[in-house]
Amino acid sequence: MAMADQRNDKGGDKRPPRERTGWLSRIAPGVRGAFSKRETPENLWVKCPDTGEMIYRPDLEGALWVTPSGHHMRIGTQLRLKFTFDDGKYERIASPSVTEDPLKFPDDKPYPDRLKAARKATGEPDSISIGYGLIQGQPAVVCVQDFAFMGGSLGMAAGEAFVCAAQTAVKRGVPFIIFTASGGARMQEGILSLMQMARTTLALNEVKAAGLPYIVVLSDPTTGGVLASYAMLGDVHIAEPNATIGFSGRRVIEQTIRETLPPGFQKSEFLIERGMIDKVVRRPDLPAVLGSILKTLTAGRAKAA
C-alpha cells in the first residue's frame, strides 16, 4: 500500500527529486562530482564516402585522409602544405588584402558574414594560401586552394594571392606549384571575380617568361572558371585519383546535349586516357613525384646558375 501511495495512476513517480537521486549520491554526497565524465570526440569515426565503412579518425589522419578503399578525401591548407614540404617545414607568405564585398552583394546571408564563417571554419583568410619551402630538396612556391572556404571559389582575394605567389616565384627564381580545388568563380563578386581569370593568366606569363616551371595538381573537385584559367595552363598536370575535373557539371552537360555521358566522365582516370592530364598520383606519393619533376625541369637552370 505504501508503494502504491508513491505512484500515480499512470505509474509516474511522485517522490521529490531529492528522493529520486542515485544510491551513490545518497550514501556519499559529492562523490559523483569527483569523477568527471570521459569525453569522447563526436568525430572520432569518419564514414568512407565510397564504402560506408567507419574509419578510426587517427588512422585516417595517418593515411593523409585516404580511406582503405582508396578514396581521397578533401583536406585543408595546413595539412596539404605540411605533407608536401620536407619535414613539414615551410614559410607562410602573406597575401595582399583586398576590399571586401565591393558590390554590396544582396543575398539571404550577408557576404561579410559568409567570409567570417569561412575564416572561422578553415583558419585561413581566403580560399588560396601560399607557402615556400623545399620539396625533396627542391625549392618551390606552393599555392593551396581550400574547397572548405566557400567552395574554393575564385574571388579578388584569391586572385591577389595567386598573383602574389607567381611574383614571389619569379623574384626568388623557383618553380611555382598549385593544388587546385574549386567550384569556380565567386558569385558574390560578380564580374570582379571573372576578371581574376585574366589576371592569373597574365601572372603566369611572367613565370613562364622567367623560364620557371609551373605545375598543377588537380584535386577534387576542380571546375568552372578555375579550370578554364590557371588550372589548365601548367607545364605538367597531375591529378589525385578519382578527382572530378571539368568546366560544367555532368547533369548540366547531359541536359544540354540530351545524351547520357559515359561512366567515369570528368574523373582523373577518364581524362588521362584522353590526354587532358599527364599523370594520376596517389596523395602519399605526391611529394616524391613533385620532387622528381622539379629536379628534372630545373636541371638546366641549376647548371646555368
Detailed description of the structure:
Strands 3, 4, 5, 6, 7, 8, 9 and 10 form an eight-stranded mixed beta sheet that branches. The protein has a two-stranded antiparallel ribbon with strand order 1-2. It has helices at residues 2-5, 23-27, 57-62, 77-84, 111-122, 156-172, 190-209, 224-227, 250-257, 268-272, 286-297, 299-304; strands at residues 45-47, 54-56, 91-93, 128-135, 138-145, 176-182, 214-223, 236-239, 245-246, 279-280. It has twelve helices and ten strands. It folds into two domains: 42-73, no CATH class; 74-304, 2-enoyl-CoA Hydratase, Chain A, domain 1. The chain is an alpha/beta fold and 305 residues long. The radius of gyration is 26 Å and the shape is globular. A hairpin with a 2-residue loop joins strand 4 and strand 5 (138-145). Mean pLDDT is 89; it is low at 1-10.
Any idea what the radius of gyration is? Answer: 26 Å
Which class best fits the helix and strand makeup? alpha/beta
Proportion of β residues? 15-25%
Portion in helices: 25-40%
Total count of helical runs of at least 4 residues: 12
Q: Are there runs of 5+ residues with pLDDT below 50, and where?
A: 1-10
CATH topology of the largest domain: 2-enoyl-CoA Hydratase, Chain A, domain 1
Text of the CATH class of the largest domain: Alpha Beta
The CATH superfamily of the largest domain turns out to be 2-enoyl-CoA Hydratase, Chain A, domain 1
Tell me the major beta sheet: 8 strands, mixed
> How far apart lie the N and C ends?
101 Å
Q: How many β-strands, per DSSP?
A: 10
Q: Given the C-alpha coordinates, what overall shape results? A: globular
Question: What CATH architecture of the largest domain do you see?
Answer: Alpha-Beta Complex
Q: Helix-strand pattern, N to C? A: HHEEHHEHEEHEHEHEEHHEHH
Mean pLDDT: 89
How many separate domains make up the residues?
Answer: 2
